Amino acid sequence: MNGFRRIAGIIFAGLLLTGSLAAGEVKNVIWIIGDGMGPEAMGFFMQGVRYAGLEAYPGKVSNLETLMNGGEWGLFFNNTHDTVVTDSAASATQMATGKFSRPEFVGMDYNSQPAETLLELARKQGKSIGIISDTYITDATPAGFTAHVQNRNQKMEIARQIVALAPEVVMGGGQKYFTTGENKKLLRQAKKKGYRVALNKKDLAAVKSGKVLGLFAPEAIPMSVELDQYPAIPSLAEQTQKAVELLSQNEQGFILVVEAGKIDWAGHANDAGAWFHEMKALDDLLGYVKSYADKNGETLVYLNADHDTGLGAFTYRHLGKEKAMQKTAQGEVLYGGDTDYASFDAFRQFAQQKKSLYNLELELKKMPAAQLTPQYLQKRLSEALGYEVDINEFENLSDVSGLFKQLNKSRGLVWATPNHSSLPILSVAYGQEADEFTGVYHNTDILPRMKNALGWSEE
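Above: the chain's sequence. Below: its structure in token form.
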């Protein structure tokens, strides 16, 4: 009898130990990549929500701040094998594969060898997989998880490889890469693999199970500041919600990678209003995924960026006596005699913006100079910004690019570059096994940490 009890005790202890290990394994991963979202973009957005009295945030707390306060933070470097600064292709490849790569390489290590990605590994584990982007689905970041090519510009080949991999969910822009030239029959092949093709919100809502290929724009989905002009296009949050609905039908779990890609585009354009709107689109998405993770209990949410773009921030500036008197007369608070430390009014202006200034600049540069009268410029700029602009505040109106630089300066905004920087990147992990992603690391360390969180053995 004592021997039986001893054996039973050993078995029971073993079951407890096995159970405790299994309980720590993540079933689902929702990995959100804010393309170009450096720490300054995150701080810029959260500060505006907290202190600018924005109508969209009456509680003065963003979903991003809530996620960060409830999660675990890390700081990571993203240099490639032999460059300090990275591009999206190399960064996505390194994150997806755990291998060092080179700029413009997709799904290949620095020796030009194909490297297995997280999504390919997940498929072997019996999980459903999905990829979403609000740019185009063949762009560098989603391609880094789904394809293996020498150059990120091989978008037609990337489209073919996406269909060959056949993730259960594929959504974004880039319809033309699946319907033209050598790929004009690619949608037919996709349908043979079981895909339902969705071109708008109505199509997407009709998909209740199985695979979906959502192609919502010929190339990139429009910027968030302009998205209300395209009511048939589902938002990034809506796409993600449908993806989770479909992927969660697999009892083995799922891996979903979502790119908020146009934070990068706004940074390249040094357009703070568009930057704010793209961060808000990401924030709306975070509200949904946090809620899902809280209810599900088996999901890891991982938020990071591939690199920083723009290095934008507010700064103070010396106005000079005449300008300072004008500002004071308008009710602005100045310090140090003529020092403008920037106003939270700028955030309220960002929230009103209706059009990407990059797109407006392109339009204006194509017009004959004779048509660019002060009255016309004031009209177009006011329409884009969503409030009445006084064109008399600006100098040399014939210099369109200079006009937008003066607009930034008038708000106290500075941008270090229109390009990527080497700034280290913040990560936020929330939910199951979030503590795998604390400390200082490199983006090639993300995949090994993700595998640990998922309980995948190295074999």
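The CA atoms of residues 33 and 259 lie 5 Å apart.
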